[in-house]
Amino acid sequence: MLIEDEVFKRYKLKKNTLISYGFKKENGIYKYSKNFMNNTFRAEIYIDKNEKVLGRVIDLEINEEYTNYRMENIIGEFVNTIKNEYKKILQDIANNCFEKQEFIFEQTNRITNLINERYKVVPEFLWDKVPGYGVFRNTKSNKWFGIVMNIDKSKILSDKTGEIEVLNVKLDDDVQKYLSVKGIYPSYHLSKKNWVSIILDDTLSDEEIMKLIEISYNLSNPKTKVKK
To answer: Is the confidence at residue 226, as pLDDT, over 70?
Structure first.
């Protein structure tokens, strides 16, 4: 994954902040540059018409692009310093010109907001090794009713690759009736007997997903004791 994609994948652009930060707009593209490493290198950052962040580093001594920091097989203190200083510049742009999002994809963040509106629940990020995994917990029972995970698509579809976010929800002991619906798959990581994974890529509408979340939430409610 490109450094720019990694830094900005959980951020949403606040376009009205770019000019005041120092960006210049040319033909619909926002451009920003900053020298670093005692003015021996220059970071050039571009935000295109699709709000994608691109960038490059210029070695000012020879006026050519420096790319070693992007190559995993090239290591060393100097290369790491260039990479870290460039990432600091990107992160400062993210902090000042973008809004931090809980998750990567738009539908995931919309669903998160809907869950909060309906159930007054926000995601819990419990694991340092997988910081993008967010758990939704029923406050009445302390049980999970959903978990969002960012995984490679090959975990769900063996012939596809690329980062996706899935929502796991618990339905019932017969999940087969749901698996015929496009966008719903056997659960990744949790029991396939009563959990399913939903790819959050707008294949299913927000309304359809919220109906499945309602089932999972109700199953996570405390069981009512029957009075004798």
So the answer is: no
Q: How far is CA 94 from the centre of its chain?
A: 14
Selection from 152, 90, 101 nearest residue 123 by Cα? 101
CA 132/CA 129 separation, integer angstroms = 9
Instruction: Tell me the average pLDDT across 32-56.
Output: 97
Which domains, ranges and CATH numbers included, belong to the chain? 3-100 (3.30.1820), 106-220 (3.90.1150.30)
Q: What is the DSSP string of 121-165?
A: ---B---SSSTT-EEEE-TTT--EEEEEEEEEGGGT-TT--SEEE
Distance CA 123, CA 112 (A): 8
Cα separation of the two ends of the chain: 60
pLDDT over 70 for what percent of the chain?
98
> pLDDT band for position 9 (50/70/90)?
very high
Residue 24: HSE in the Cβ half-sphere, 13 Å Cα cutoff: 5
| Cβ partners under 8 Å of residue 129, min gap 6 | none
> Can you tell me the distance from the alpha carbon of 147 to that of 149, in angstroms, rounded to the nearest whole number?
7
Q: Which residue has the tokens 């690759």?
A: 161
pTM: 0.83
